[in-house]
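Handout, page 2. Input:
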Amino acid sequence: MDPLSQAVFGVMGAGLKKPKSIDKSSICKRDLLLICLWGALAGMAPDIDYFIRSSEDPLLTVQYHRQITHSIIFIPFGALIVSLFLKVFKVTIKSSYPYTFLGYATHGLLDSCTNYGTILFWPFSDKRYSWNLLAVIDPMVTLPLLILLYFFVKKRQWRYIMLSWIFFFSYLSIQSYKKVRIKSLLEKNHFITNETDRFLLKPTIFNNFLWRVIIVKDDKIYFHGVHHSFISESLIYEGDVAKLVLKDEARKLFNRVTYGEYDFERFSYFTSGYLHWYDEYTISDSRYSLLPNSSEPLWTISYRDKSRNHVEYNVSRKPSKEQRRMLLMMLKGESGSPL
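Output:
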């Protein structure tokens, strides 16, 4: 998730370690703020892998982000690195390590709740865990937690840490229920059938009621948006259809760049195989788009330039005026078809 959310959860993790006495008179606000700072730094620390990059190989960051530093087995070592960093500021490892350990431990588990994919059990497994319950930026979960942490520091009462975890797991439970309900509605309306090869349901960025639906059937990918609310009728926004990328069809491009097949394999692994053709030389990550029912991708790889050793990795995050208008309409739950 975004750095702010990771910092918040790092504080929530650190807050699980109570001092020997939890009487608010026994710990000054400065010490409590230091504990929060240690947890926040540890909560954000695993994303240092985002800076693993190469100008020659643009997929290097994609390959290593949310891998080693996000693994459960790396938690003790990652926390130690944070504590060693804090030692520069004359903070003893003994005093900071319990808090950096708990703060660091929240990161990979939180990322696994999103749809990006996190390799939790490296090096024993290369499976990417993505439970598709949270968007990578979700203020509807982060802001309430920030408020609870504010009262945690202000009142120096550990019950607010407990309340923050109760709120978070309640939020996940609601999201899980929504996911099951959306799947049931799609099955009832024959969008998902026995002929469906696979599908993906995930909340879109900044909210928890507009979901992206990706359905693979007969070598095609169908994109839909679903507006789901407990207080109004669910709506579906039927969208684009694109051709699924099959490796046998993509082979014609591999010889265009030196590491063409290797780059395809990495991109396919990163996207869990949700790939569609953008044009004859360009392959798209089907999971992400500015609109939930659109095939217009955020991330693509291109084999167009034959002079390269690696594919070209393109990122497009600038919505047009029409896309912003359509997104606002969907967020409001307007003009969709009832489910």
